[in-house]
């Protein structure tokens, strides 16, 4: 059974103030109350009566003191004033692409500021543009592109890569779009690392280049020349060895941009497996820059298939 919120007598008669508090996840600021006509004495009275619960100076929870994650985020943003937005790892947590840092909320302020609040890491970023901000579930936050750039300043490359993958799977931003946007963010901390990740995982060869590079690798692995662009089980495959029952597919992008694209790949691989074939997948970057690894996998797989062949 869901826990019920404590009931309290009305904070205020003003429907405008109630609407504002509800819009802000049950959080309201002293500035909000003063603008709605409440005197300092009236605010103090409501704090004393338990209708307002202080979170940070000038920021109150309305009616009940418990803070959900979203209430806490909203309170932190409001505590940092106009132009503030959730950012970095807290923004990543709101977008559900990475975990938040323990014991702190990350907020960016689009102006010169000297906020020092317990539990909030407030960054003064006057150069942050309005176009880099948005609203998610009612909370001002850096958009997915800016959030990924900011994450690259704090997380190891492997964890940034996972965040990019999550953003793609959730249809927040795909790798091609992210790579294009890097041009308008040139010089920002995090862009160099993020571009390096995208260059590796978005690397793509033309069909002719792919075949020219891949065929010698396959030959070095002891494989005969494959059929290329062959139709197998109703699907066009990149490379096929019918005598071994081996299919090799190559991906220009590690990330699948849409659920439908991912579903098509799954059906294709499942169909080949059901027909008794073995499917290997390599990225274009692996074929171009990690030929020894590709050769090793091909050689081991081909030897296994030869031993199991009747």
Layout of secondary structure:
Elements: H1 15-23, E1 27-29, H2 30-35, H3 40-48, E2 52-56, E3 59-62, H4 69-79, E4 84-86, H5 88-95, E5 105-109, E6 120-124, E7 133-136, E8 139-142, H6 144-151, H7 157-169, H8 175-181, H9 191-201, H10 207-220, E9 227-232, E10 235-241, E11 246-251, H11 259-274, E12 278-283, H12 284-289, H13 291-308
Parallel strand pairs: 5-6, 11-12
Antiparallel strand pairs: 1-3, 2-3, 4-5, 7-8, 9-10, 10-11
Mean pLDDT: 86
Uncertain segments are: 1-9
Largest sheet: 4 strands, mixed
Globally, the shape reads: elongated
- Evaluate the radius of gyration: 27 Å
- Numbering strands along the chain, what is their spatial order in the largest sheet? 9-10-11-12
Order of helices and strands: HEHHEEHEHEEEEHHHHHEEEHEHH
Distance between the termini: 60 Å
Q: Structural class given helices, strands, pairing?
A: alpha+beta
The helix count comes to 13
Number of strands: 12
Strand content: 15-25%
Helical fraction:
40-55%
Tally of structural domains? 3
